[in-house]
Amino acid sequence: MPGEIAFEFPELFFTGLWLTIQISVLGLVGAIVIGTFVALARVSPLVPLRWIGGAYVEFFRNTPLIVQLFFLFLGLPFLGFRFSTDTFESIFRAAATGMALYHGAYVAEVVRGGLLGVDRGQIEAARSLGLSYVQMLQHVQLPQTFRSVIPPLGNIGIALVKNTSLASTIGVAELLYAAEIVESRTFRTYEAFIAATMLYLLLTIPLGIAVNALERRMLVVR
Amino acid sequence: MRGLTRAFALGLALAFIAAACTVGTTTPSPTVAASATSGRPKLELSTYQYALQTKGKIRIGTQEDNTPFSVKNPATGKWDGFDVAVGREIAKAIFGESDDPDKYIEYVPVTSATRIPSLTDNKADVIIKTFTINEDRKKQIDFSDVYFKTGQRILVKKDNTTIKEAADLAGKTVCAQRGSTSEQNISSATNGAARPLLLDSYPACLLALQQGQADAVSTDETILFGLVKQDPNTKIVGKYFSTEPYGIGIKKSVNGDRTGFVDFINRTQIVMITGGTWAKLYEQYITPVSGDKKRTPDD
Question: What is A20-176's CATH number, 3.30.460.10, 3.40.50.790, 1.10.3720.10, 1.20.272.10?
Fold first, then answer.
């Protein structure tokens, strides 16, 4: 049976799967929070905020994720910052942070598109009814934005789960790392990578189904 | 005009005659060319080394950035290092003494991934590149005798006094390359008690060591030499806890196309070792980074 090798090395594959899940969840939540704030900055009436938001997106979107992870793990100490005194906690935190920062830039662009897609009339009506800017965001603009950006956010989520494999380059013992170790010890390359692929699909396919269900429930009828 | 054309034709004719004369006198008869008239070693006709001697060039495959074994100076394009020097000794054995042995050598840059294919595809005649002899590889290519022995050791910061042997790595963070035999050796030597930080390359491991994110780096001593050169504030400790014997890689003889070559390389190596050249090369290239002296590979 394909993927059987995962049960021969459960401490590598299933611990790896658990770490992948942890980094994915933390990364995705972080990315959505960061991305929303950056998107709001980009559409804000204040010019400095727009500039900061734009710079964030340009930087994190245009540099490779591997480089960002490397910098978070081995570059920050030069600037005096460490995530933790324990190296393994450090690499985990660096990986989760890297996922959030990098995908945050993509979320920001998607949410910005959603914000701009909300009917101008809605915003003007809200303001003329006396709602403050924050109240308008909270009750009118953001809820409508999120309903419309669920499919692209789902895309980013699935991409994020797969990108966690890059955390192996800074030493995180996640799923890809498990496959590589098992391969180098047993030379059973195909089996090891098929097992890893199946475990990744175990995460991405349900995520895709959940996003589709959510989208159907919150269908934006125009 | 007529006079000019005739003069030209005459000149051309003289040139052709002169060329024909010189060509006639230098046509070598096969047995004579290999003799000592040109100061070159006498080699047997049917062998590969004789074919190389006639061709006038040997293609040596080695790596550009493998301190202290092979380094190519990017500014001057000159190659240097222990492996490169061994290659020059082989060139000397085929082409004779010369003030510039490199004129008989064509260096073919290879990496660990391309070294076996470069032999089997006949892109290089020999591979001299910190090449560990093992049974799997012997199925694909031939190896010379061992010309260098090394093993796995440990790199720590110079002021580290707690790690002296492999057993001391228990509970410590040790950095090695992911998927390498080095990380497997660490695991077996410490019974899984070391905490492995597996990165993509040894320079990255060195960085982790420098920042204190790793307590030690462990791999072949020869790679550690390169790291010490990069950062003199580190030192190599511990006895070998694995053995890596290096050999020169040669393509397997198919239909006799490499006849006598492996034996020739082995004989050249023996001459190098017994004659003291090996010890001199060790002192020149390895001692500055290792601090020890060896007279033979078995020391």
Answer: 1.10.3720.10
Q: List the CATH code of the domain at B39-147+247-290.
A: 3.40.190.10
Q: What is the pLDDT of residue B1?
A: 60
Helix (H, G, I), strand (E, B) or coil at B131: coil
The kind and range of the H/E element at B127 are strand B126-127
Query: Do residues A38 and A53 lie in contact, with contact meaning Cβ atoms separated by under 8 Å?
Result: yes
Asked if the model's pLDDT at residue A203 lies above 60, the reply is yes
Of A74, A88, A180, the CB nearest to B204: A74
B234 to chain A nearest CA, in Å? Answer: 18
User: Which tokens hold the place of B147?
Assistant: 């010309």
Count of CB atoms situated within 10 Å of the CB of B137: 16
> For residue A83, what is the nearest residue in chain B, using CA coordinates?
B213
Q: What is the pTM of this model?
A: 0.73
Q: Cβ–Cβ of B213/A185 closer than 8 Å? A: no
By Cβ distance, the residue of A73, A87, A184 closest to B173 is: A87
**Residue B19: is its pLDDT beyond 80?**
no
pLDDT on residue B129: 87
Q: Per residue in A25-77, pLDDT tens? A: 999 999 999 999 999 999 998 999 999 999 999 999 999 999 999 999 999 99
Beta strand ranges found along B158-269 (DSSP E): 173-177, 195-199, 216-220, 234-237, 243-246, 249-250
Q: What is the pLDDT of residue A220?
A: 61
Q: Which two tokens stand for residue A167?
A: 């955390």
Q: How high is the ipTM of this complex?
A: 0.86
For residue B179, give the nearest of B166, B151, B198, B154 by alpha carbon: B198
CA-based nearest residue to B71, from B129, B8, B127, B2: B129
Residue of B nearest to A78 (CA): B211
Q: Helix H segments across B47-134?
A: 48-55, 82-95, 115-120
CA A124 to chain B, closest CA, distance in angstroms equals: 54
Q: Do A180 and B179 touch (CB under 8 A)?
A: yes
* CATH classification for the domain delimited by B151-244, as one of 3.40.50.2300, 1.10.155.10, 3.40.190.10, 3.20.20.390: 3.40.190.10
pLDDT digits (tens, 9 = 90+) for A91-149: 999 999 999 999 999 999 999 999 999 999 999 999 899 999 889 999 999 999 988 89
